[in-house]
């Protein structure tokens, strides 16, 4: 099952990493922290990468499990809301849910940054065995790896340097 929407290839100028990226989703529990961990691994260390949610969320153990499969960890990271950020001073905000995209577009009325919408499936809606649930989370993880690699002109296995 393919869980994400088709996306066009970025222009060459879009492949250069911005200085800072914020991944934004509904609760900062699944999609945006997963994207943050993957981007920190894949992008150059000079790029500031963060994540937040529109609403309050809780850390999701399935995210930890599928990141650990790739030798990645969120460490002591905890979910946070967009309103908790001291400044919203990012070059790029990548929104991963409709609610997050709407909120980011509201912010562009008073702030200057680029907003990109990457519709990303919410694996928390999957019911079934632990393996079936993990499979859905793996698909989201792998989809985010592809999107990050495509957007920033990286090889999928490339590590930030």
UniProtKB/TrEMBL annotation:
Record has Transmembrane helix as a keyword: no
Gene3D superfamilies (alphabetical): 3.40.50.2300
Pfam families: LMWPc
Annotated ranges, domain Phosphotyrosine protein phosphatase I: 19-154
Gene Ontology terms describing biological process: response to arsenic-containing substance
Record's keyword terms, sorted: Arsenical resistance
Protein name from the UniProt record: Low molecular weight phosphatase family protein
Organism this protein belongs to: Chelativorans petroleitrophicus
């Amino acid at each position: 099952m393919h869980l994400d929407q088709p996306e066009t290839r970025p222009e060459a100028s879009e492949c250069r990493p911005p200085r800072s990226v914020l991944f934004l989703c509904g609760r900062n529990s699944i999609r945006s922290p997963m994207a943050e961990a993957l981007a920190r691994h894949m992008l150059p260390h000079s790029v500031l990468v963060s994540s937040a949610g529109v609403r309050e969320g809780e850390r999701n153990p399935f995210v930890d499990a599928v990141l650990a499969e790739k030798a990645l960890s969120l460490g002591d990271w905890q979910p946070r809301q967009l309103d908790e950020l001291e400044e919203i001073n990012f070059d790029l905000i990548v929104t991963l849910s409709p609610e997050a995209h709407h909120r980011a577009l509201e912010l562009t009325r008073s702030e200057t940054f680029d907003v990109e919408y990457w519709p990303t499936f919410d694996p928390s809606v999957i019911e079934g065995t632990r393996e079936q649930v993990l499979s859905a989370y793996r698909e989201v993880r792998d989809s985010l790896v592809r999107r990050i690699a495509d957007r920033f002109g990286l090889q999928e296995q490339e590590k930030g340097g």
